[in-house]
């Protein structure tokens, strides 16, 4: 492979695509597609109760931390900030990270680099590279498919097999709910940790699995529980966190690594909390006690229809699994696909009702979407079913089908999707309420558990429930009367239970903080009705930096 002539002396800029994001524009921003995980695809129908936060672009942060060249990361720039950075500092290499929806922005950024920094080499990486003829759509010198750390190290003539250095990453930023921005104190937010990329299960629609090798393949940054433990200890002391957002598509699938991590956590008395992604078949490899002792407090799990044929769900009673996890204090984030091959206008409502009936804490709905690089895309292309005149900016699973479905029209796909989100909210209430329910169940079950690490974790969690969250329950109970009286009554019952468990603290906070939260919730509702959106701030971070002479 060609290497850069300056090797590790080359000056590198790594940038995410420019914002603002939550607005409709000619570069591919869409108001329906904000840079917010929950509000974009999970709690978007929950109004002022929607959980809102931003997440940094971890791919480029990982690359920056693992090369010795002078390197700047520019995250969430405006077009102006990107132009300023290009002209203020001379860069030998400009790396742009993007997913497919943002290809229009990559095109514009490449154009800007050619104009403002004509000597720079342009490298484009991330999922956008999976578009089959992307070379013809953008003016880049290198388009990198798959894992980028090893590519960049090779390109700079560095050792691609050197151990992976994990940067200390605060997982979420500017968290906001019920009209209040939560204070951002050190250690208050989980740290992101990325043990691997890809997933060997190879579900036909899965873009992350396909991008890192497909069925049977994935890339481990940390092979063993020991390595992972050491990395987590480092981040724990740097960020003062107990909580980790484990960004691995199927963390629990790698049981040996997870169980070794648990051994090390026990030896060192670590009372950590882990939020993980895992498929049902992987969760089933553990007893509930193993999960609880490992600190698993939140699981993101695919809940495709029982009539689908995905191996990860085989032999699992999803309703029972979800209930059991929640009874053990593990919050469940379900993910359901709308528009699978067997869905029809006659059965889709029933399929959505059963998904909603699992009563998860959070529920993501996504349209079945053939995305370039996946087996599903190839299959649809071979069958001539892809719709060819759709702007890539509109292919993100939250708008309309990008293929001809056997029974459901493109217009109806959006109606069913929107209805699923609404139905989940209407039947189950705000996710914040459901989380409170799970937290209380966990606390009641484990408050006297013999392992002090586990007790400590539940005590930490329940502190929020016995204070601010109880005030939030008071507000939700009042506000939800307008949406669904029976859910409001369930919220009331839960609040009473919390107050029985913590008579002084819970009542006092409901009485003092409740009215303020009610006011901020209503103010937020008004703002949202007037079209208020939120954007992440711009970050510039430099490493191994020397100013250009
Ligand atoms: C965090 C995240 C977000 C964050 C934002 C992150 C950001 N700052 O852009 C939020 C929550 C806001 C978000 C939003 C969306 N996301 Co998102 N997101 C993720 C998630 C969960 C993690 C990304 C990550 O950090 N991975 C770990 C890092 C290490 O991997 P990586 O980013 O792929 O980077 C590696 C390589 O790709 C490569 N690389 C990356 N950049 C570069 C740059 C260069 C120069 C080089 C050489 C290499 C390189 O090297 C890296 C190290 O190996 C992924 C799923 C996943 N497991 O990856 C989805 C994912 C990236 N998101 C996706 C989508 C579709 C969206 C949304 C459209 C929402 C939706 N409907 O699903 C919106 C788009 C918002 C917008 N307006 O742009 C898809 C992308 C699909 C595709 N093929 O394009 C993914 C893959 C999820 C999925 N399975 O569908 N997302
Ligand atoms: S189990 Fe989940 S992450 Fe793995 S391939 Fe299937 S959809 Fe993708």
Could you tell me the number of beta strands? 18
Ligands, ions, cofactors: cobalamin, iron/sulfur cluster
The biggest beta sheet is recorded as:
7 strands, mixed
Q: End-to-end distance, in Å? A: 30 Å
Helix content range: 40-55%
Structural class, please? alpha/beta
Describe what you observe in this structure:
By secondary structure, the chain is of the alpha/beta class. Helix content is 41%, strand content 14%. The chain has a seven-stranded mixed β-sheet with strand order 7-10-13-14-15-16-17. Strand 16, helix 13 and strand 17 form a beta-alpha-beta unit. Helix 13 packs parallel to helix 15, helix 18 packs across helix 20 and helix 19 runs antiparallel to helix 20. Cobalamin binds next to strand 1, helix 1, helix 2, strand 4 and strand 5.
Q: In a nutshell, what does this entry contain?
A:
The protein is of the alpha/beta class and 549 residues long.
Jot down its keywords.
binds cobalamin, 14% strand, six-stranded mixed beta sheet, alpha/beta, single chain, binds iron/sulfur cluster, 20 helices, 549 residues, seven-stranded mixed beta sheet
């Amino acid at each position: 492979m060609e290497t850069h002539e300056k090797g590790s002396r080359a000056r590198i800029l790594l940038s995410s695509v420019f914002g603002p994001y939550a607005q409709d524009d000619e570069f591919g921003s869409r108001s329906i597609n904000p840079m917010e995980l929950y509000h974009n695809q999970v709690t978007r129908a929950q109004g002022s109760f929607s959980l809102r936060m931003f997440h940094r672009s971890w791919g480029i942060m990982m690359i920056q931390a693992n090369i010795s060249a002078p390197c700047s990361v520019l995250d969430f720039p405006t077009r102006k900030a990107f132009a300023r950075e290009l002209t203020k500092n001379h860069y030998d290499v400009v790396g742009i990270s993007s997913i497919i929806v943002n290809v229009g922005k990559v095109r514009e950024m490449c154009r800007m680099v050619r104009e403002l920094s004509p000597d720079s080499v342009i490298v484009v990486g991330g999922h956008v590279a999976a578009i089959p003829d992307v070379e013809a759509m953008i003016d880049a010198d290198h388009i990198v498919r798959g894992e980028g750390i090893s590519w960049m190290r090779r390109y700079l003539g560095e050792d691609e097999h050197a151990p992976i250095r994990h940067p200390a990453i605060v997982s979420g930023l500017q968290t906001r709910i019920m009209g209040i921005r939560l204070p951002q104190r050190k250690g208050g937010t989980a740290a992101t940790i990325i043990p691997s990329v890809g997933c060997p299960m190879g579900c036909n629609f899965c873009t992350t699995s396909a991008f890192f090798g497909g069925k049977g393949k994935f890339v481990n940054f940390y092979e063993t529980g020991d390595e992972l433990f050491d990395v987590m200890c480092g981040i724990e002391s740097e960020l003062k966190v107990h909580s980790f957002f484990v960004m691995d598509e199927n963390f629990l699938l790698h049981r040996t690594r997870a169980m070794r991590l648990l051994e090390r956590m026990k030896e060192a008395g670590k009372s950590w909390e882990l939020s993980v992604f895992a498929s049902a078949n992987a969760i089933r490899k553990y007893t509930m006690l193993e999960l609880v002792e490992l600190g698993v407090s939140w699981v993101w799990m695919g809940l495709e229809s029982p009539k689908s044929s995905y191996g990860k769900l085989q032999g699992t009673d999803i309703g029972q699994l979800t209930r059991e996890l929640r009874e053990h204090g593990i919050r469940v984030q379900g993910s359901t696909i709308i528009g699978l091959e067997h869905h029809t206008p006659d059965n889709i409502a029933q399929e959505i009702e059963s998904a909603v009936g699992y009563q998860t804490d959070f529920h993501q709905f996504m349209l079945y979407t053939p995305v370039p690089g996946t087996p599903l895309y190839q299959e649809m292309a071979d069958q001539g079913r892809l719709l060819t005149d759709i702007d890539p900016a509109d292919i993100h699973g939250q708008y309309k089908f990008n293929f001809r479905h056997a029974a459901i029209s493109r217009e109806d796909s959006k109606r069913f999707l929107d209805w699923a989100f609404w139905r989940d909210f209407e039947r189950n209430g705000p996710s914040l309420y459901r989380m409170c329910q799970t937290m209380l169940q966990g606390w009641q079950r484990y408050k006297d558990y013999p392992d002090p690490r586990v007790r400590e974790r539940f005590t930490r969690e329940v502190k929020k429930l016995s204070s601010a969250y109880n005030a939030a329950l008071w507000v939700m109970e009042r506000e939800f009367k307008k949406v669904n009286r029976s859910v409001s009554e369930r919220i009331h019952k839960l609040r009473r239970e919390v107050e029985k468990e913590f008579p002084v603290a819970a009542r006092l906070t409901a009485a003092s903080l409740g009215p303020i939260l009610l006011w901020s919730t209503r103010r937020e509702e008004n703002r949202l009705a007037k079209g208020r959106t939120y954007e992440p701030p711009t970050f510039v971070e430099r490493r191994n930096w020397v100013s250009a002479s």
